[in-house]
Amino acid sequence: MKELELKYGCNPNQKPSRIYVENGELPIKVLSGKPGYINFLDAFNGWQLVRELKAATGLSAATSFKHVSPAGAAVGLPLSDIEKKIYWVDDMDMEFTPLANAYARARGADRMSSFGDFISLSDVCDVATAKIIKREVSDGVIAPGYEPEALEILKSKKSGNYNIIEIDPSYVPQEIEKKQVFGITFEQGRNELKIDEDFFGNIVTENKELTKQAKIDLAISMITLKYTQSNSVCFVKDGQAIGIGAGQQSRIHCTRLAGQKADNWFLRQSPQVLGLSFVDDIKRADRDNAIDLYIGEDYMDVLREGAWQNIFKVKPEVFTREAKREWLDKMSDVTLGSDAFFPFGDNIERAHKSGVKYVAQPGGSIRDDNVIETCNKYGMVMSFTGIRLFHH
């Protein structure tokens, strides 16, 4: 198959639409559903991301994509009991495989953004992973293969219309890539930069102690940024992205956005949130939205009289700003990657509030000395990679 006709492009009025290759055959098989233009953009970007995460870490990897940027990305490290609870998989009586762990982490880090995601998996989709996917609102999945039982589980989603794509893992694209804007063709060499633990050797801060886990987390942050719409920054903790700021014009806005998402991830592990008692029939998306409001500035939307009774069995106490700050001060050993240099130390100041200890960025700003000085103030370790990772 050299080409696949699509229903429409980015929007229903954009017709005709197709994907195709100029030479050879498409490296995919559509096993179920009818993936659209944006589905394929998410699928192909996500597949590259998880393939590179697997190559860099040797661990199974998964990503949750929305609108051509990852909402989450992770490798298959074991889940703690608290992580199982905040990712809503603690009720699943099964053995969690590394791939299932990876997707639970990728989906669970930012559940608001991951709602209706397109999933990419580094390995053959197994039954445990399919069971997690089955219960989530998702547009589709791409993987190098599917166990027969896993495929049947996935085919049952959306009344048999769930998008399932199988990709040939041996496929190698051409070295030159092209796209058109306004009828004009752009051409560039593919970004084949290899990112691994050795990528972070140029440490420019006084503290130069980069742990093995920090190297893994920095690799995850950088590979995630490689497929995130720029400007972008990525906070990572223990093998998973916990906050991604994408597509902002200002880097400090990226850092604030990603930092807030990282904070929300940690606040969900607080006793105040873990102790919330939801009504029995609440839907998963409504529960996620309620938690997001409860830990944010609009908490009265779910605590006001007449509203809380539809969400909680018992009215929660207000999670005060002071109590949230006290909990967030316990967050530590977080890593932060940036796809381009930090122009000011304010990015580091904001990162510090979210427990960042390890930083990787290209360097090259005229204010590098200020950024380094700010890192030194907090005992952070910062690596200059010398490589920009813009993605558009």
Notes on the protein architecture:
With 392 residues, the protein is α/β, with parallel strands linked by helices. The protein has 3 domains: 3-167, 3-Layer(aba) Sandwich (Cytidine Deaminase, domain 2), CATH 3.40.140.20; 176-267 and 328-384, 3-Layer(aba) Sandwich (Cytidine Deaminase, domain 2), CATH 3.40.140.20; 271-318, Helix Hairpins. Helix content is 34%, strand content 21%. The protein is built from 14 helices and 15 strands. It has helices at 37-57, 81-86, 98-108, 111-114, 127-134, 148-155, 212-226, 251-267, 271-274, 284-294, 300-303, 321-328, 346-353, 368-377, and strands at residues 3-6, 17-20, 28-32, 61-66, 69-75, 117-121, 138-143, 163-167, 176-181, 184-189, 232-237, 240-246, 334-338, 356-361, 381-384. The strands form 4 sheets. A 6-stranded mixed sheet has the order 3-8-7-6-4-5. Strands 12-11-13-14-15 form a 5-stranded mixed sheet, sandwiched between helices. Strands 1-2 form a two-stranded antiparallel ribbon. β11 (232-237) and β12 (240-246) form a beta hairpin. The mean pLDDT is 96.
Q: Could you write a compact summary of the structure shown?
A:
This protein has 392 residues and is an alpha/beta fold.
What distinguishing features does this structure have?
392 residues, 14 helices, Helix Hairpins, Cytidine Deaminase, domain 2, single chain, 6-stranded mixed β-sheet, 3 domains, 5-stranded mixed β-sheet, alpha/beta, globular
